[in-house]
Design goal:
With 218 residues, the protein is α/β, with parallel strands linked by helices. It contains seven helices and eight strands. The chain has an eight-stranded parallel β-sheet. Helix 1 packs parallel to helix 7. The longest helix has 16 residues. The model has no long low-confidence stretch (mean pLDDT 98). Zinc ion binds next to strand 2.
Length: 218
């Protein structure tokens, strides 16, 4: 079953719980939590307290995307009964295997992400250890950017590697997904789609969530 993970980076933080209730009503599967530190990426978003303010206000699990340096120092902060995935960037981890094992030791699914210009080969020796691979389809740092089409080829290659190698990880894509390109994205083998601005900047958040889900479930 394919999953939709709306990114609250593009939500209205003044009415965050309402925006999240709207995606839940529309059938979202996860809440994508974009954490930015102003070092690994040129923007600062929010940290664990904002995510924790949603616990109990929604039944949806958290899909945490850490765009931060030294993620090991902060992993525990993101553990809640609703946290399902924590994803770190390959480019930000000097000891990636250790960080992935650290996330798993917290009882969570461990994801690894790569930027658009980072090769899949950087993941050769971690694929058997991760629960999810997140392919960035924009340069991380901001919502509302344009989808980088070369990532579709990368997703296809990764789906092949998964099939041939018999791996269990899920494939997620993040950045620039819209109702117009989501079909192509899933055709490339993507199983979890992140969408921020396309959902939270829409005039009807619930209806737009429903439309995304409709395509994902085809
Ligand atoms: C980019 C973030 C994405 C982004 C998605 O750094 O990781 O999750 O907010 O937003 P859209 O869908 O607007 O590109
Ligand atoms: Zn993200």
């Amino acid at each position: 079953m394919r999953k939709l993970s709306p990114s609250i980076l593009s939500a209205d933080f003044g009415i965050l719980a309402e925006d999240v209730a709207a995606i839940e009503k529309g059938g979202a599967d996860l809440i994508h939590v974009d954490v930015m530190d102003g070092h690994f990426v040129p923007n600062i978003s929010f940290g664990a307290p904002v995510m924790k303010s949603l616990t109990g206000k929604t039944g949806l699990p958290f899909d945490v995307h850490l765009m931060i340096e030294n993620p090991d120092n902060y992993l525990e902060d993101f553990v809640t009964p609703q946290t399902e995935y924590i994803t770190v960037h390959e480019e930000a981890c000097t000891h990636l295997n250790r960080t992935i094992q650290h996330i798993k030791s917290l009882g969570l699914k461990a994801g690894v992400s790569i930027n658009p210009a980072t090769s899949l080969s950087t993941l050769d020796y971690i694929l058997e250890d991760v629960d999810m691979v997140l392919l960035m389809s924009v340069n991380p740092g901001f919502g509302g950017q344009k989808f980088i089409p070369s990532v579709l080829e990368k997703a296809k290659e990764l789906a092949d590697i998964k099939k041939v190698g018999g791996f269990n990880f899920e494939i997620e894509i993040d950045g620039g997904a819209t109702l117009d390109n989501v079909q192509e994205i899933i055709d490339a083998g993507v199983e979890i789609v992140v969408a921020g601005s396309a959902i939270f900047k829409a005039s009807d958040i619930t209806e737009t969530t429903r439309k995304f889900k409709e395509i994902l479930e085809r």
